Amino acid sequence: MTLNKSLFLIVLLLLYSACQYDPYAHRYTTHKPDFEDLIGTYRFSEQTISQDTVNKAGQESYIELRKNGTYAICDIPDVFPEKVNSPKKRITGNISAKGKWNIESVGNVDNGSNVETHWGIGLTNFNKQYTSIGFMGNKPPYDIIITLGDPDAGEVIIFTRED
Questions:
Q1: Domain ranges of the chain
Q2: Structural contact between residues 57 and 44, judged by C-beta atoms closer than 8 angstroms
Q3: Burial 62-75 (b: 16+ CB within 10 A, else e)
Q4: From residue 56, how far is each of 27, 71, 81, 143, 145 by CA, in Å?
Q5: β-pair partners for 109
Q6: Residues 113, 123: Cα–Cα separation, whole Å
Q7: Are 52 and 70 in contact (CB under 8 A)?
Q8: Cα–Cα distance for residue pair 32/54, rounded to 1 Å
């Protein structure tokens, strides 16, 4: 193999390996869920944003979506950065909020053959930047995934629906 071909292959491999993929995309809800199927309480399950230990309140945190279109967030770990792509994210406490919620598109998933909508929720009175709040699962009960910044980084907080 000539030197030029070898260099071309190395460059091609480097470019290919630099492409990333959202590690949770295959779990996103890509059909619009029914409002009634989303009502309930979602408990903290895991977070991949910070190496900090989640305190007891954070471990017991939840998001409650109510039938009347209101929500309550109780003590979710505050890992939300002030600036996009902050190099190190720290848990700085816990966040609680109340307001109204609605079903909305929070992005798209490209599965290679077509682009599908990722469904999630919009919340009033929850103004955290660089955040997407989506659903996971193809049928009820759904889970909630909060993604910070670039989805390819895999920085998420996951809440699992209570039975």
A1: 28-161
A2: no
A3: bbbbeeeeebebbb
A4: 28, 22, 21, 21, 20
A5: 116
A6: 31
A7: no
A8: 32
